[in-house]
Amino acid sequence: MNWLVDFFGDPANWSGPDGIPVRLTEHLQFSTVALLLAMLVALPLGLWIGHTGRGALLVVLSANAARALPTLGLLVLVVLLAGLSTDLPVLIPLVALAVPPILVNTYEGVRGVDPDLRDAAYGMGLRGGQVLGRVLVPVALPLILLGLRLAAIQVVATATVAAFVGLGGLGRYVVDGFATNDYPRTLGGAVLVALLALLVQLVFVLIQRLLVSPGVRRRNAVR
Amino acid sequence: MITFDEVTKRYADGTVAVDRLTLEAPTGEITVFVGPSGCGKTTSLRMINRMIDPSEGRVLLDGVDVTTIDPPTLRRGIGYVIQQAGLFPHRKIVDNVATVPYLLGWDKKKARDRAMELLERVGLDLKLAGRYPFQLSGGQQQRVGVARALAADPPVLLMDEPFSAVDPVVRTSLQEELLRLQAELNKTIVFVTHDIDEAVKLGDRVAVLRVGGHLAQLDDPATLLSRPADDFVREFLGRDRGIRRLSFVSGHEVGLRADLTVPVSTETAGLRDTAEPWLAVLDEDGRPLGWARTDDLPASGTLAGVPLAPYGTFDRGRDSLRAALDATLLSPSGCAIAVDDAGRAEGVVTREALSEALDRVAGGAHA
Amino acid sequence: MITFDEVTKRYADGTVAVDRLTLEAPTGEITVFVGPSGCGKTTSLRMINRMIDPSEGRVLLDGVDVTTIDPPTLRRGIGYVIQQAGLFPHRKIVDNVATVPYLLGWDKKKARDRAMELLERVGLDLKLAGRYPFQLSGGQQQRVGVARALAADPPVLLMDEPFSAVDPVVRTSLQEELLRLQAELNKTIVFVTHDIDEAVKLGDRVAVLRVGGHLAQLDDPATLLSRPADDFVREFLGRDRGIRRLSFVSGHEVGLRADLTVPVSTETAGLRDTAEPWLAVLDEDGRPLGWARTDDLPASGTLAGVPLAPYGTFDRGRDSLRAALDATLLSPSGCAIAVDDAGRAEGVVTREALSEALDRVAGGAHA
Amino acid sequence: MREEPLVRWDWIGRNWPSIQSLLEDHVVMSLVPIVVGLLVALPLGLACVRWRGIYQPTMSLMNVTYSLPSLAVFVMLIPVTGLATRATVIVPLVFYSLAVLIPAVVDGLGSVPDHVRQSAVAMGFTPLRRLLLVELPIAVPVVLAGLRVAAVSSISLVSVGALVGRGGLGYLFIDGWQRQFYTPIIVGVVLVVLLAAIADALLVLAQRLLTPWSRARGTA
Amino acid sequence: GGDPLTNTSPTPADSGAASSSGGGGSKKVVVGSANFPENVLLAEIYAQALEAKGVQVEKKLNIGSREVLYEQVKGGGLTILPEYIGSLLAFVDKSTTAKSKEDILAGLKEKLPAELEVLEPAAAEDNNSLTVTKELSQKVGLTTIEDLVKVAKGYTVGGPPEFQARQEKNFKDTYGLEFKEWKKTGDATADAIKDGTIQVGNVFTTDPKVIINGLISLQDTKHAFGADNVAPLVNKAGVDETVTSTLNAVSAKLDTAGLLTLMKRVSIDKDDAATVAKDWLTQNGLAS
Ligand SMILES: Nc1ncnc2c1ncn2[C@@H]1O[C@H](COP(=O)(O)OP(=O)(O)OP(=O)(O)O)[C@@H](O)[C@H]1O
Ligand SMILES: Nc1ncnc2c1ncn2[C@@H]1O[C@H](COP(=O)(O)OP(=O)(O)OP(=O)(O)O)[C@@H](O)[C@H]1O
Ligand SMILES: [Mg+2]
Ligand SMILES: [Mg+2]
Fold it and tell me: E191 to chain D nearest CA, in Å?
């Protein structure tokens, strides 16, 4: 506990480019961007595959393979190849990390909707897009949100590694703390990341409350 | 009117689900497709609203080939009810019912008003309107399904085993509800079931399909029961065919004897030497009280003090000959008391009268 | 014998599921619990094998209070069959059936042999033994469920709506299977259903429960149908009570007329002036061929060339009066042909004869 | 920079023995957490099913653990487990796999249909036998699905350990990074993915072998 | 003996890349290295030289910074660590002003805790440096650190996380050098220089990326970084006579030019540190 006081109690850690507010903002920034990019890829794809059933096997298999991609390896490779002039390359491994849970849960969510429901929707004269938008997505929403939540937490936690190649964010505390044998710093960074992850959880619970119809019950997530 | 014209459906795997089906489902009537599992009932039904397109032949809706109509447009004009109701779990009951009106661009208020009206019509408590489907029982969900299919007042209604998931008691009440509704609405209904009793009860016409998608017989229920086209149909109709057939013969077919009823105020003295073993005793309003056995009548006094045996009645206006038969079998006298709507006795059905009526029916059956 | 002695079950939430139930399920008989949903049938049944323990009163098995017996031991001696069969999805059919023998420590070979024997006995193809439950149809699964319950030859069998999830045709065959088995095995069976037809068909005795867990009536089926204890039971028994009651009257009750049958070789000449409108024509072996209308007979030749109307038959030895009635209603002549086991005509049941038999029954019902 | 080829095949040939030993180290460090995780998750999952009340707290704890950055945990464990030891990597990975496996066990037991459980009781199974002979076997497909995810993530996460001196194939990433040398990185990534694919395939195979009864269940 | 933590690890056989010989012997030494290639190479050289003498060696290479490893050597987790005397002294004695090799060695003798010792330093020096791109060097005319003083207020400087803490004051005191901003670029310092994220970076002169990218290391005319001869830092309790003499023999053969050649092999030819170390040892008769 003393460690925590050492880190959080030091006013130097609350200001300047290496201060907690700045690091936190940075961390949030690229986590958010990575998550958004991943959503941009995985949500439409997951919806489409779940809806049409086309290419399902391929995507589920490759999503599992993507899960196996070592973030660190990808990170150093991408940075070596593309340089550090923009943050974009650094985001690639994070996006790769976030895509599988979003994709798989979206796909499973849509696919898992009771076929009778789909039938009833078509039978009433909804068009393909309407079936997806008005029936499948709202019913699959709890699972889709769960996928997003898992992705967000993993991104927030793993973005730490990006500090190894010089990126900012809370990972700096972890990496720098290690390099300077400054444990309070590492621990402080870890605690901040965990708190951020907790916050993400809370935000998602809130979104869930707001968006998911009380008529829809939750199903099990796929990590 | 819905017309199947030499319709064949062959699935990708080679299964022939429907084989050169030709039939008509007349406007304003309930046509039932019945047959064993896998005989192509669902497939046939779904070719009407283009959930499935035929491999050969044509399905016509009032003379128009349905394949010329854009599926969503076609479907919005056709109500569709399925077994598990297929309610949208994320929408409140009222919004479920208003789905098609919303799709058709009705304004929200009008669509909801219409939904409420329909909920009432299918016999649901309006309190349920704000609930979600999971908060309803199976039977209630099924009623919502029917209401939803009716929301935009489509002329045609397709129902695929809509009541098969609920328990027998609820099922009976749903069936009666449907008949009541149809009496008001006069939709063109195609109804799929694998339960022959349901088919015979609901159908104006019943199409019996056999596995492989062949039409085995298409007839009104009474004809179906009395003259099954072949052994398959006979077998499928099952036992009690003769008795069940009586359901389609009106109670009016049977002759009554008015002389077997006596008011309760009658003196017993004059009755003791009647040849009849039993007499139906009526109260002042003409309602039956029970049977008195003439041999056991006391020597004096009115019938008021006499012990009476319970009676069997049937409503000649509403009930069928089957109910009359059942009533005679339940009655200790072997005779049933025919009553009118108000419950007043119109006369007594003796077994001889029943026999005569049955003879007429049986004779007619194979004419 | 299973005895309920003033048994009450109150659930933690205060629901009284069973209220001072006292009844006996005699050894070697099928006792059916029937009643509307939620009336406490399942609860009562489960108090027998201690899946639930009573709040008050005692359940005795052959005089021994079941609460004095260790539950697993008790249960291994009581077969239990439920609606979804409850088969173990991860075990092959044969191992499913051998479950209790394994539990009892039988050796593997013996347990499997026993399982195979039982599969055969419940009418399953032995090829299925090596399959997994998901590869079987609902009806087959249900049969396996019965076989499994019988595996260790328990004297008592509890069945909770075992056939309610399968379609009507399969259901009927399962019911008949059960009756056949019971005729061989003579188990003490308690059977729960909410279907009164099933109750009446299977039960040696039927206990009708009403919601709140009260016993409304306990009687053999024929008595139940003819003398329902109160309006609740009468209502619950539903329509056709009179007709259904006939199921319990043997076909032997009805008198036959032998003079209405004629061999096909008979000359028509002598038959044309009979007073009877219809005659049953038989082949050389005495099997019915159909009805000849006497008015339409040609002046000469034998009956061989005469057009015959289809006939209704019933097996006097096996069928009930209900089947006889149904046959008369189906026959164009209004008469049924009674046949023996071999299908040879024994005589003709006229409507008068039937009427007379019915009179006896009806009279007996309220005697 | 452009002249550096993406893959120098000769380098792979020359350094194969050391790559191989890294691979072995990687396998050990990713396998142990899964096995240990499973051994711990089973009783914990059972406890969570038995006492529903502890499930939520347990999962909250697991979720917090799951959101701790692995690198930070590795660093903080060094004083306890030592520098560049396998334990430093294995211990946190055990917790990560628990976060996946406990819900898998709980969901797996939850997937046992109630009527199956009831009929087991009615046939006179004692609680322990019921668990071992009925409930656990039926839970296998769901548990294995969880195990697949745990295995793949574990294999991928081990490489982060390279930042604290012990990361199996992750060493290749650091090495390649420092020397601006793609080959080891690519070799590392490919081997990690391959390893994960093999582990996944083995688990799928195990599922097929262990649960012939659940195959094509959906179509039955 | 050995590493008690390896013993607590769930796997009994310690057969990873980080060890080249099965543990267990009481004389086993643990050679560590910091997380940059030259240090890894030096550690390989030490380790293989010792192995050639039959010493049981465990390698824990490419791990972290001095801050981490120093503690480990002190605690006995590591036995031997390739070090740089100037930097090491600056680390143990923040206030030192020693610049020459002799002063530094004297300083180390005095300041190192009792359990630690620096063996014979080699002739090879690997200076810490401030490095810029060739383009910047030509444009502004930068060849020495002094040249930097006049422009530094507009520059961002980057380096490993520990860099600012170690050197900020030193630069100011020695050169009057002040930068606009300090960035922690860690292992990406060379890349950052190249990208222009920073203008000046703290990298070793033998960093492969300096060599590969042709970066220019500015001359340290006032010896701000101090003499940085390579020398093994050892935990006294862990080493015996064989170890000491072997390492001293290695140091005797190691010079700056030689080290640079070796580093070129590692950096450009992408030969493995182990192979390069082995070749060098063989050539110098320190192993067969
Ligand atoms: N998409 C499909 N592909 C291949 N065969 C199909 C398909 N859908 C149905 N079938 C087959 O076509 C036949 C008719 O199926 P259909 O669903 O119309 O029967 P049904 O009469 O509705 O049966 P049930 O009473 O079981 O609902 C069956 O043999 C069925 O297996
Ligand atoms: N565990 C329980 N806790 C509280 N109430 C219960 C419980 N189990 C059953 N009940 C209630 O006890 C009553 C009787 O239930 P039971 O299951 O015995 O009825 P049932 O006759 O078998 O009905 P069904 O035909 O629907 O199976 C019902 O009102 C039911 O809601
Ligand atoms: Mg169907
Ligand atoms: Mg029940």
Answer: 10
